[in-house]
Amino acid sequence: MTDTHIRASASGVGRPGVGWAVPAALFFGLFALVPLLLVAVLSFASWNGLTDPEFVGLDNWRKIFADPVMLESLWLSVLLTVLGVAVQTPLSLLLGVWAAGHQRNRAVLSAIYFVPLLLSAAAVSVLWRAVLDPNFGVPAQATWLFGDGNLFGHQSTAIGVLVFVSTWQFTPLHTLIYQGAARAIPPVLYQAAQIDGAGTVRQFFHITLPQLRNSIITSGILMVVGGLTTFDTVLILTQGGPGTDTTISAYYMYQKAFKSFDYGSASAVGLLLVLVATIVSLVMVRLSGYDKMRSQMEGL
Predict the structure, then answer these.
(1) 33-42, pLDDT tens digit by residue?
(2) 274 lies in a domain?
(3) Inside any domain, residue 146
(4) Cα 188–102–176 angle (5° rounding)?
(5) pTM recorded for the entire structure
């Protein structure tokens, strides 16, 4: 085949037409952009859900930033997010690399480990609320380990429970990301390293980790966005308690909207969470250089 024929064949393979993106764009616009626009409008209005909204300017924003509970909720959201990333990243990375290998019974163990990924956050929270119940749960039967058994009665232990439950549920997702990425690493790299005398640990740090860079960034962004916007786990496990010690921003928004019927302030909190999560994601992408990575098959 001549070069002309090759170029002609290659020119026939290009990006899909714009029409293929129309259904997804309409869905995203209708269920994401339009609600976000309405939330942005309500953040500058006073509305109790019954009467007509009344424009109040920046009053809602001044109100939430003057509330010490709101400021504490921002700190708690950041704390839970950082703890989640610090615990889930190394755990899911090691499990993903292990699951990508050819160990005996690996497929069976991986299938069992991925079971939490099939459950909803509400179901997982209800399960662990029962298991850790201070009256009839495991802590009540093992006071030698858990003290008074009330893990939800102290801020430090309540935060620990939230981090543990989130890790138990979402680590399998990130493990799956790392497993797929680890399997895509060319075996020739490890073969060359073995010839040069590199052991398993050295291969992990000099081959596996660099090759998983993009996957680590992707997983990290998912963890950060998920950590900043988590809600149902706190609602079911701690209800923001004890007191307001686990009242994160998403739960604070829920209280403002459905307990105080202050939908204007709740909309301001929701819009703030969207802006923070978006900015943090963009910063992570820019600082990591992820936005400069290009695939050889991009657009195909």
Answers:
(1) 999 999 999 9
(2) no
(3) yes
(4) 90
(5) 0.87
